[in-house]
Specification:
single chain, 266 residues, alpha/beta, Ribosomal Protein S5, domain 2, six-stranded mixed sheet, 12 strands, 41% helix
Length: 266
């Protein structure tokens, strides 16, 4: 009798624990979580047009006709007021075309949707100014006689800086040897840019590589510090080229274009 009682008590304890765990999981499945779900976004060729208008317009000096493409990449994340639950998070973790990101890393804490949009547009404007400064500095050109205008509709943030700079350089100087910096290829990438040409990380590269390959890119320029993230989800047929400075990106593209010189890889 005592042995049977001990078995029954053990079974009862396990049953109670199971009910508690099930209840906790049920509650967890309903509680909103502080995450955003991101997916690959659109890409835009900065050497071409966006919504019918040139992305890069240059006046005050001669420009050259370009070939190939330089595509900036984006991700699309759920809004700051979206409700994300445990099921969404689990789905994102097991889907290579979705990423689960802390909401704080995507949207500043406490900001409204309107404030976030203003913040992103301000970042984009600053990035455009920095991209122009970095490109002209690389070319040893003065902005006194050169007017560069950058236009990209409905895209915020600083992550297009590197591609903007490369686009300006390509329109003004190409590969520096009479050819095109792209070598006729579709090149994609991401990265912030500082006026001195320093390339910085941006996040979301594991999704941006998917967007790049989807839209025909065979080469992806990635901030060196984010190589591991890019490699983790690299689609077949996409070469990852790490960069730390604008001159690194130009040198790598020149080597790819001419077939001469070493091209680093993540």
């Amino acid at each position: 009798m005592p042995a049977e009682f001990r078995v029954s008590r053990r079974a009862w304890t396990l049953a109670v624990c199971g009910v508690i765990v099930a209840a906790l999981l049920a509650v967890a499945a309903l509680v909103p979580l502080p995450f955003s779900i991101a997916v690959p976004g659109g890409t835009v060729n900065v050497l071409g047009n966006d919504r019918g208008k040139p992305v890069i317009s240059i006046s005050g000096t001669a420009t050259r006709k370009t070939t190939g493409q330089l595509r900036m990449t984006t991700i699309v994340a759920t809004g700051p007021d979206a409700t994300i639950r445990l099921g969404d998070v689990l789905d994102g973790w097991f889907d290579e075309e979705r990423a689960v990101l802390p909401r704080d890393s995507v949207y500043p804490v406490g900001d409204s949707v309107e404030e976030i949009e203003r913040h992103n547009l301000a970042d984009m404007r600053e990035s455009q100014d920095d991209a122009t400064a970095a490109a002209l500095r690389y070319l040893n050109r003065s902005d006194d006689d050169i007017d560069v205008r950058l236009r990209l509709a409905h895209v915020g943030g600083p992550s297009a800086g590197l591609l903007f700079s490369l686009g300006i350089i390509n329109k003004l100087d190409g590969d520096g040897r009479g050819g095109d910096l792209t070598g006729g290829r579709t090149i994609a990438g991401t990265g912030t840019i500082a006026p001195d040409g320093t390339v910085g990380p941006v996040g979301g590269v594991e999704l941006k590589t998917l967007a790049a390959r989807r839209d025909g890119a065979t080469v992806f320029l990635v901030p060196k510090d984010e190589c591991s993230e890019a490699k983790a989800n690299r689609p077949e047929g996409l070469k990852l080229v790490p960069v730390t400075e604008l001159k690194d990106a130009v040198s790598s593209l020149r080597a790819l274009s001419t077939g001469k010189g070493e091209v680093p890889s993540c």
